[in-house]
Amino acid sequence: MSISLEMFGDRWSLLIIRDLMIRGFRTFKEFQESGEEIATNILADRLRKLEAGGIITADAEQTDGRKVNYRLTEKGIDLAPVLLELLIWGARHEKTEAPCALIEQMEKNRERILAEVRRRWRERDPAPLQVRGQWRWP
Amino acid sequence: MSISLEMFGDRWSLLIIRDLMIRGFRTFKEFQESGEEIATNILADRLRKLEAGGIITADAEQTDGRKVNYRLTEKGIDLAPVLLELLIWGARHEKTEAPCALIEQMEKNRERILAEVRRRWRERDPAPLQVRGQWRWP
DNA sequence: CAATATCGCTTGCATTTTGCAAGTTACCTT
DNA sequence: AAGGTAACTTGCAAAATGCAAGCGATATTG
User: pLDDT tens-digit profile of B60-78?
Assistant: First the structure.
């Protein structure tokens, strides 16, 4: 029962997936300016590898030929439960900013949050789940 | 909502955690000989960092002063849901060996498997995880 | 239409991390 | 006492990463 080292073996891939899934990122520039400080050569390399691994797709935008839209595939969006559990764990064990209510929220609403993430993906809704550092989930 | 790069930012930490949690590994030598081909200096470094991060403990064994027993802390065992979701995802998307039954097993028995993992941790049961003797985790 | 800006990269090189083989130290067995 | 074993450490080579600059294809502006 092995762990895919394709994304969990490096520092950036999972952050890219999270940003696609939760923050609603779509373009190279958004990743570049996200404050994560990822170098552009590494970003290009990781996007290439995630695409090769069937986790994201890269399509040129219609209205602007320079832009490329990156999106999660079904395989990619199926990582939502992993991400959610990871965020729950992080909130419980790694945060100092009173996260207790948040943890309860996330655990109680696990299925609802996952459903919402999947709905957004299906409908190509680009709005982030997270707004200005605050959770929008009721 | 950030992802802990302490373990998810490198190639080996998560494998070490999995081996502690599921395969029942306890000692340096077991990791060394697990077939993962991790270099001993890196292994020592990762064990040190996981300990510093509060995810594992390192205790000298009573009966043999050379041996060190590594175990997950509560913070560490709380990663079980993450691991399980990751294994489910891997089984669904990355395996060729007829995993359909296995996926169903894992998804249907999610809570039972987690309970079993936690029980073994609580009782310090070193046996690798099996589910009702039906199948093993290689 | 020409000049300029933007987007998604690539390139060259310095720095950091990793991998490999060979020790080293403390402890255990005979 | 001699030899083996467990858990490391060390030195050096190889690979991955980070950084700054540049490049080609659009798009926008004047």
Answer: 999 999 999 999 999 999 9
Strand C: which residues 63-102 of A lie within 7 A (CB)?
Answer: 66-68
B40 nearest nt, CA–C1': D8
If you average pLDDT over residues A68-76, what whole number do you get? 98
- How many C-beta atoms lie closer than 10 Å to residue B46's C-beta? 22
A114 close to B (CB below 8 A): no
CB B84 within 8 Å of CB B40: no
User: Where do we find the tokens 């029962």?
Assistant: A1
Say whether the CB atom of A45 is under 7 angstroms from strand D. Answer: yes
Note whether B1 contacts A82, CB cutoff 8 Å: no
The phi and psi torsions of B27 (rounded to 5 degrees) equal -115, 160
Q: Assign residue B61 a region (left: φ > 0; alpha: ψ between -120 and 50; beta: otherwise).
A: beta
Compute how many other C-beta atoms are within 10 angstroms of the C-beta atom of residue A120: 18
Take residue A125 and report the two structure tokens written for it.
Answer: 């809704």
Burial bucket for residue A49 (CB in 10 Å: 0-12, 13-18, 19+): middle
Q: Which residues of B92-117 are buried (b: 16+ CB within 10 A; e: fewer)?
A: bbeeeeebeebbebbeeeeeebeebb
Nucleic chain C contacts, protein chain B, residues 48-107, CB cut-off 7 A: 64-66
Tell me which chain B residues have a C-beta less than 8 angstroms from the C-beta of A14: 3, 8
Model confidence at B59: pLDDT above 60:
yes
| DSSP label of B128 | P
CB count within 10 Å of CB A92 equals 16
